[in-house]
Amino acid sequence: MSSTNNPAVTEQPRSRFQRIWDSDIFFSFRRSPITIVAALVTLVLILSALFAPWIAPYDPFNPASLNLMDGFTPPNSESMMGNYFLLGSDHQGRDVLSTILYGSRISLFVGISATLFAMAMGISLGLLAGYRGGTIDAVIMRVADIQLSFPAILIALLIFGIARGIIPPSQQENMAVWVLIIAIGLSNWAQFARTVRGATMVERQKDYVSAAKLIGVHPLRILIRHVLPNVLAPVLVIGTIGLALAIIEEATLSFLGVGVPPTQPSLGTLIRIGQQFLFSGEWWILFFPAMTLILLALAVNLLGDWLRDALNPRLR
Amino acid sequence: MSEPIISVRNLVVEFPLRRGLFTAVDDVSFDIMPGEILGVVGESGAGKSMTGAAIIGLIEPPGHIASGEIYLKGKRIDNLPPEEMSRLRGKWIGMVFQDPLTSLNPLYTVGQQLIETIRRHLPMNEAQARQRAIDLLDEAGIPTPESRIDSYPHQFSGGMRQRVVIALALAAEPELIIADEPTSALDVSVQAQIIKVLKKLCESRGAAVMLVTHDMGVIAETATRMIVMNKGKIVETGSVGDIIKRPKEDYTIKLIEAIPSIKDETRRHEAPPTSTLLVEVKNLTRDFDLSPGFFDRLLKGAKRNVVKAVQNVSFDIRKGSTFGLVGESGSGKSTCARMLVGLIKPTSGQVLLEGQDIAAGLTQERRQKVQMIFQDPYASLNPRWRVADIIAEPMHALKLVSNRREAEDRVADLLRRVRLDPVSMRKYPHEFSGGQRQRIAIARALSSQPEFIVCDEPTSALDVSVQAQVLDLMRDLQDEFGLTYLLISHNLAVVRQMADDVGVMHSGVLVERGPVDAIFDDPQAEYTRMLLNAVPDISKVE
């Protein structure tokens, strides 16, 4: 062994892009066609939602541009007024494609915000519970257990109901999206807290934490700078799968009529509107928003599945 | 001359990996005669375990035997279909693995596992098989086997469990036993007993043994002939005495030189310790309360359960000296170390650093003076941090530097001092080998310019040649900076090489302490004598 005198570094540092391209995670990504398709679908849906105002053929939320004479136009045809609708139009003469683009914008915004909110809450409480242990741990985890024993949708409904009672009626339309985000977020934090707590309990035993304690690093700094980066991998996985769940949860709440108002419909609201016309033959009003929701949830879920496998060293 | 039990010819094992073909075993040939113990020694990654796995046909895919032949009593076995191979295993070839905890099924009693193995391979009924199981346990040195046979694995201690594994391996009277690091997870005193059992059983049954280990001492005690492996290839083959006393190849010479011996008195650090005391440990005691909760005690009448991890331990460390603390697992030496640096508060007793009590609240100054090096270099460095940040953390936390530039210069200097390239500060810990990581850990410990460093098993996770380098480095740094070490180790030879004074711990009590040569050459305590006798040491070979 000659490493006493030989410096450790001999190879040329590769560029950042090359390193990422060569990394094990990206390798497993390249080898899985389903994941690539799922990633593409997610990317297209997110981009089209993001740029909806520029790519949507009509503005479905501008009442001035709507014409009831355009109503119930089947897909890929022109209305009496001579307007073309690729995916048809609904009872108010709104272009279904445009409502989907604008609707998935709201669905994604609510889903992502709610997941981030649940993540932030779950991670902080999980870190605290795992690192401190004892009574704090017991209290936090019992609350999480109680919450997990209810269906998430029930908790979201409950929080939504309470918010309805607190917020004055004039504000309710504007606050609806934020209430939805908090309701979905609060009903999903327990998963994150559990995972982070378990990982934290493992990490805090490791010697790098002892080394930091030894030199008097503040516990909060140990938690954020040392422990947090090492417990994030599983959080990323349940975060992705949680995103799909949050999007579906939002759709369910909106479908039940307690979500965003019909003037600013999300995918769930669109499905609720569409199901009124399902049996009268105007299937497209329901079908296309529903397919978009399925596609979005499936693609995000597949990404989450892949991430879980790629980050699990046992399956590598 | 009789026919060899096993004969391996030009064996090549390959692993097709993403980044190319990895040859784990490269053109290996050897024979083992009946009744012979062949030692296979090498550092991690030498391909020694893989050779054993190839013989019993248990190579993990995608690894496979690329070429070569394996003969068991003249019959070729490397190309047998899996079903036939599994019949061979157990009947003809027995295996003893490193970890006795995982090689037994925790859900079945020891007897059930033995009887199942016996009846699969030998034509016996339940009662006969049971009698045979009892005989086997008896032979393996388990006291009162009639009553222990119906116990579950967790009811045995580590050493007893390994005896059961040996009994299991011998159950079907195999011709060949492959023992892969059979004693590496055990304490020295238990290791000595297991070696004795293994040796005795092989002599009485005439079975051939392939003993795979990284510990040259174990081979010196056990084997008759040995193979030295490095990077998949056989470096040297010969009798144990020849190789240890008169190694021919460069690699073997270096390897033997790197192995510390309990008889070795040289290589101590140069600067003599001063007579002033730096650390005084006074009547240190630590109890761990493992009692059930208050309500359980109240309602179910559960008893209090207090483990006395450290009892009334006192010693002094002279400035500039190395104090070695030795003992087997569970003797309380790591608990002692953690109390000395202030990570655990003592139940009673004091640790004085330059006359000031450490536990009375760690001030900035004392934090800076005391540092620690941990056992596992894989767990002691945060995998998400760059080396530069890891080493600089003590400087930032203790505000020893004013800006990033200054910190970076200091890190570069420290890396040079632990013989690493300063460029490596941009890398992450996983890009380094175990020895290099331990150097980084040492650099971190040095970064606050400490006076006293507690080293908790600093080299036990490392290969011998790397261990020698790290110990050399520690010695050089001691002379350079006038450091004082507390060296904790289960390895007596390492302590003999490094320490000026030694303390021996047993079940939480310091049984003996004194100058290193006095303790090793003329031990007073019964336990120390037993420990020194049990150590397998290369100096014991004739």
TrEMBL record, chain A:
<keyword id="KW-0813">Transport</keyword>
<dbReference type="Pfam" id="PF12911">
    <property type="entry name" value="OppC_N"/>
</dbReference>
<feature type="transmembrane region" description="Helical">
    <location>
        <begin position="143"/>
        <end position="163"/>
    </location>
</feature>
<feature type="transmembrane region" description="Helical">
    <location>
        <begin position="227"/>
        <end position="248"/>
    </location>
</feature>
<dbReference type="InterPro" id="IPR025966">
    <property type="entry name" value="OppC_N"/>
</dbReference>
<feature type="transmembrane region" description="Helical">
    <location>
        <begin position="283"/>
        <end position="307"/>
    </location>
</feature>
<protein>
    <submittedName>
        <fullName>ABC transporter permease</fullName>
    </submittedName>
</protein>
<dbReference type="InterPro" id="IPR050366">
    <property type="entry name" value="BP-dependent_transpt_permease"/>
</dbReference>
<keyword id="KW-0812">Transmembrane</keyword>
<feature type="transmembrane region" description="Helical">
    <location>
        <begin position="175"/>
        <end position="196"/>
    </location>
</feature>
<feature type="transmembrane region" description="Helical">
    <location>
        <begin position="106"/>
        <end position="131"/>
    </location>
</feature>
<keyword id="KW-1133">Transmembrane helix</keyword>
<comment type="similarity">
    <text>Belongs to the binding-protein-dependent transport system permease family.</text>
</comment>
<dbReference type="InterPro" id="IPR035906">
    <property type="entry name" value="MetI-like_sf"/>
</dbReference>
<keyword id="KW-0472">Membrane</keyword>
<dbReference type="InterPro" id="IPR000515">
    <property type="entry name" value="MetI-like"/>
</dbReference>
<keyword id="KW-1003">Cell membrane</keyword>
<feature type="transmembrane region" description="Helical">
    <location>
        <begin position="34"/>
        <end position="56"/>
    </location>
</feature>
<feature type="domain" description="ABC transmembrane type-1">
    <location>
        <begin position="104"/>
        <end position="304"/>
    </location>
</feature>
<dbReference type="Pfam" id="PF00528">
    <property type="entry name" value="BPD_transp_1"/>
</dbReference>
UniProtKB/TrEMBL annotation, chain B:
<dbReference type="InterPro" id="IPR003439">
    <property type="entry name" value="ABC_transporter-like_ATP-bd"/>
</dbReference>
<comment type="similarity">
    <text>Belongs to the ABC transporter superfamily.</text>
</comment>
<keyword id="KW-0813">Transport</keyword>
<dbReference type="Pfam" id="PF00005">
    <property type="entry name" value="ABC_tran"/>
</dbReference>
<keyword id="KW-0067">ATP-binding</keyword>
<dbReference type="InterPro" id="IPR017871">
    <property type="entry name" value="ABC_transporter-like_CS"/>
</dbReference>
<dbReference type="InterPro" id="IPR050319">
    <property type="entry name" value="ABC_transp_ATP-bind"/>
</dbReference>
<dbReference type="InterPro" id="IPR003593">
    <property type="entry name" value="AAA+_ATPase"/>
</dbReference>
<dbReference type="InterPro" id="IPR027417">
    <property type="entry name" value="P-loop_NTPase"/>
</dbReference>
<dbReference type="GO" id="GO:0005524">
    <property type="term" value="F:ATP binding"/>
</dbReference>
<keyword id="KW-0547">Nucleotide-binding</keyword>
<feature type="domain" description="ABC transporter">
    <location>
        <begin position="279"/>
        <end position="532"/>
    </location>
</feature>
<dbReference type="InterPro" id="IPR013563">
    <property type="entry name" value="Oligopep_ABC_C"/>
</dbReference>
<dbReference type="Pfam" id="PF08352">
    <property type="entry name" value="oligo_HPY"/>
</dbReference>
<protein>
    <submittedName>
        <fullName>ABC transporter ATP-binding protein</fullName>
    </submittedName>
</protein>
<feature type="domain" description="ABC transporter">
    <location>
        <begin position="6"/>
        <end position="256"/>
    </location>
</feature>
